[in-house]
Amino acid sequence: xxxxxxxxxxxxxxxxxxxxxxxxxxxxxxxxxxxxxxxxxxxxxxxxxxxxxxxxxxxxxxxxxxxxxxxxxxxxxxxxxxxxxxxxxxxxxxxxxxxxxxxxxxxxxxxxxxxxx
Amino acid sequence: xxxxxxxxxxxxxxxxxxxxxxxxxxxxxxxxxxxxxxxxxxxxxxxxxxxxxxxxxxxxxxxxxxxxxxxxxxxxxxxxxxxxxxxxxxxxxxxxxxxxxxxxxxxxxxxxxxxx
Lengths: 117, 116
Known about the structure:
The complex is a heterodimer of chains A (about 120) and B (about 120).
Chain A: E1 4-7, E2 10-13, E3 19-25, E4 30-38, E5 44-51, E6 57-58, E7 67-73, E8 76-81, E9 90-98, E10 107-108, E11 112-116
Parallel strand pairs in A: 2-11
Antiparallel strand pairs in A: 1-3, 3-8, 4-5, 4-9, 5-6, 7-8, 9-10, 9-11
Chain B: E1 3-5, E2 10-14, E3 19-21, E4 24-26, E5 33-38, E6 44-50, E7 56-58, E8 64-68, E9 73-78, E10 87-98, E11 101-106, E12 110-115
Parallel strand pairs in B: 2-12
Antiparallel strand pairs in B: 1-4, 3-9, 5-6, 5-10, 7-8, 8-9, 10-11, 10-12
């Protein structure tokens, strides 16, 4: 149990286009989902925390108008990178925290590799 | 603020030898500590966690971690390394972010290379 999927797993797009990444909890309900960004050989950087039915909370330095997050249901959160540019190329990972309280255990998706040309 | 530190960027170990990946923590209150592993181009996989109880925590894939309060450490260990253990390892601690929500704070990661 506790599987999180991401789609797509890999995307290449032209500069200026928008890209949507989906994060789904497949077998549990997630009150909270997290979006991370990871640069090569670096740790995960938390971008934002999203709670179902409310606005996402963005970390300092993360542009909320550029990285749109929608958490429409207890099993789906989406991250849209708007007007993507080459510097947005990165590995994006989501995680989901189950509805039950369990010491903040999070389950991670497999990640999405975004390359902006 | 809750934080963890991984002092080693890279650890090399010969296959069959014991391995240790180090993590130290700085927390207020009772520490909850996690270890995750990341294989290339993959998300993070949960290995084990310490909440309370025994200082030696057993996890997935034969890994274990020892919680040491006096040294504020939570080192990851395995008695006999496999080549397939080669990956990036992250220590993490939850931090309260307000409104009843917690977020994980990760160490910078340690790359483990197991040499055949």
